[in-house]
Amino acid sequence: MQSIPVDTARLGVLRCANAPEVKFSNSETQEVKKDRDGNPVYSVAVTVRPDGRRISVIEIAVSGEPKGLEAGQVVKVTGLTAFVWSMGDRNGVSFRADTITPAHGSAAQGKGGDA
What we know:
Layout: E1 2-5, E2 15-16, E3 21-22, E4 24-26, E5 31-32, E6 41-48, E7 56-63, E8 75-78, E9 81-87, E10 90-97, E11 99-102
Parallel strand pairs: 7-10
Antiparallel strand pairs: 1-9, 2-6, 3-6, 4-5, 6-7, 8-11, 9-10
């Protein structure tokens, strides 16, 4: 699997779209996905709006529960990496980050913000 470092400065304002959700390795048994160190993996939907383009939502996986994230809040994403994947006739891009934290001094805002 090819990994590609992502320059978050080029993504515009990053906002948390929903509260972090734990990822499951098996949805039938509700087995929580773990990283190499045994930490649970969470998924955070983040909106991006590069250079005034349309808003896109990307799902970012992160190890350990991100604290203090609320929908609409501007966030800082550290160590963002994209992974190109292919399984049979399906393919896509997934994202992983070292951390996702609230940006300092940011408050949740209503619709109509930058992203």
